[in-house]
Write a structure and sequence with these properties.
- This protein has 258 residues and is an alpha/beta fold.
- It folds into two domains: 29-128 and 233-257, Rossmann fold, CATH 3.40.50.12500; 131-229, Rossmann fold, CATH 3.40.50.
- The protein is 41% helix and 17% strand.
- A four-stranded parallel β-sheet has the order 2-1-3-4.
- Helix 2 (42-49) links the parallel strand 1 and strand 2 (54-61).
- Helix 5 (98-104) crosses helix 7 and helix 7 (125-135) crosses helix 12.
Length: 258
C-alpha cells in the first residue's frame, strides 16, 4: 500500500461532529416506475403531475420496439431485475405498459416487482386503469388504442373478464412504439370522439406512449363522460398507494373527484 503523503495527513483530520439526518427531499413518498426502453411519454407525464415533494425514480427494461403479444410477453422475465436497480425503500412500484401488463398478467407483474423490493406496494399499469374506471363508475366502455388488432383483441378479452362491457375497441394499427409516441394529442381527441357512442358511460384510451393526459379534460368536456388514459390512471393510483390523496384540477374527474 502506498504511503499517505505528509500533506494529506496534515489536512485530512476531520473534527468529529454530531448531525441530525432529515427526511431528505422526498418527504411524502417515493415512487418507482419500470418503463420499456422505448418509452418516451410516461416519464414526462409522471413528473408533470406528481408533486415536487414526492420522489420519482425510473428504471427501464429491454424491449423489441415491435409491439406484439410475443414481444410483450418476453418482458416478464426481466421485470425483477429492472425493479431491483431502483433505489431501496420505494413506497410503490409499477410496471408502465398497459398491453404488456395484460399479456404478462397482473399477478405475475406484481410478484416480479415485489421480489427485489418486498416492502413496496407493487402494481401494473392495467391494474391502475381498472381501479380508475371502477371508481368513476364506468361499466359500458369504448376503448381507443394505438395497437394492432392482435393486441386489441387480447386487451378487450381482459377487460371483459374484469367485468366491463366493451362496446367497441378501435386501434390506430401502429406496430412500433416509436410511432405511438409521435401521435399528436389532436388525433387522440379525434379517436375518442369517433369511438364514443350513446350507450357508452365512459371512454378508455389505452397505452402509456400516447399523450392522453394532455387532453383528458377536453374529451370529458366534449363528451360529457368520464375518461381514463393509461398514464392518467397510473399516476393517480400510484399516488394513492403511497398515501398521497391530493385532488387536482385540469386532469378530469378522476383527479378532481377521487
Amino acid at each position: 500500500m502506498a504511503a499517505v503523503p505528509e500533506t494529506t495527513q496534515r489536512w485530512a483530520n476531520s473534527t468529529p461532529r454530531s448531525i441530525d439526518l432529515g427526511k431528505g427531499r422526498h418527504t411524502r413518498g417515493r415512487l418507482g416506475f419500470v418503463l420499456l426502453e422505448t418509452e418516451e411519454t410516461a416519464d414526462d407525464d409522471i413528473r408533470r403531475v406528481v408533486p415536487d415533494d414526492v420522489g420519482v425514480f425510473y428504471t427501464r427494461t429491454p424491449f423489441d420496439d415491435s409491439v406484439t403479444v410475443e414481444t410483450l410477453a418476453a418482458v416478464g422475465d426481466d421485470l425483477s431485475r429492472s425493479a431491483g436497480v431502483l433505489p431501496p425503500d420505494m413506497d410503490a412500484i409499477a410496471y408502465v405498459c398497459t398491453s404488456g401488463s395484460v399479456v404478462v398478467g397482473e399477478d405475475n407483474v406484481a410478484k416480479a416487482l415485489a421480489k427485489p423490493q418486498p416492502q413496496a406496494k407493487t402494481t401494473s399499469l392495467v391494474t391502475c386503469v381498472v381501479e380508475a374506471m371502477r371508481v368513476l363508475g364506468m361499466q359500458k366502455i369504448v376503448v381507443g388504442t394505438p395497437y394492432i388488432d392482435e393486441i386489441n383483441h387480447f386487451e378487450a378479452d381482459f377487460l371483459v373478464e374484469r367485468g366491463f362491457d366493451v362496446l367497441d375497441i378501435q386501434g390506430l394499427c401502429l406496430l412500433c412504439g416509436q410511432d405511438m409516441v409521435m401521435v399528436e394529442p389532436e388525433d387522440i381527441i379525434k379517436l375518442a370522439l369517433e369511438i364514443d357512442r350513446p350507450d357508452a358511460d365512459g371512454i378508455f384510451i389505452s397505452c402509456s406512449a400516447l399523450r392522453t393526459i394532455e387532453v383528458v379534460e377536453e374529451i370529458e368536456q366534449r363528451t360529457g363522460k368520464p375518461v381514463v388514459g393509461s398514464n392518467h390512471a397510473l399516476i393517480w393510483r400510484m399516488m394513492r398507494l403511497a398515501g398521497i390523496e391530493d385532488r387536482m384540477e385540469g386532469l378530469g374527474r378522476l383527479y378532481r373527484e377521487h
